[in-house]
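JOB MANIFEST
job_type = single_chain_structure
chain_count = 1
residues = 209
[input]
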Amino acid sequence: MKDQRPYIILVLLLLAVPSFAQRIGGGLMLGPAFSTMQVSGNDSTRFRPDFTGGVRIALLPKKSVIGGEIDVLYSRQGTSSKRGFDESGNAIRYKEKSHYITMPLLLNVYLRKWTEDDEDESMIPRLRVGPYVGFCVGGSEVYEVKGKKKQQYITPWERGTFSRIDYGLTAAISYWYVEVRYSYGLANVFKEGERSTNHVISVTWSDVW
């Protein structure tokens, strides 16, 4: 059985956040995302560019360096393959595209205390870490043979396609209005076949009012 203590400690820290925070803020997030899937036995997957965006609801500290937040994001994810060749010598390539609503629950650690001159968190360097859960709302497979593309739409409730729920861990570093975030998936993306997990790097414009 896996050691559950890190998760228990994280949950306790998140529950303790309201005692440190003194007000609630809301904000927006929007920016490019670069996603891939780690698939067992497949080393040809590569990052695929797309975007993510949504809203943040944060518990903001005034006299401490501990805060918290929950995000609701629309995330376009997936992966693409390197260009290869089939048995006839035709150039082939494929892409997996998936669409998620993700909800990270993050502990925010500010690298200095808030002061009376701070109107928002933009000038305070901060770290964020916590678990996330994602809900797959659709996807597609795109096959390209000799430059011609064929796209097949799939839904998470069809047999043998994407799993409906994804989950994992998120870590981020933020300064000014820019945030770099990495999400490490732990759930199997596909219902059948080799084990596959999501990995997403995003660079977003992010603020809290």
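[summary]
Residues 162 and 173 are 30 Å apart (CA to CA).
The chain is about 10% helix and 60% strand.
exit_status = 0
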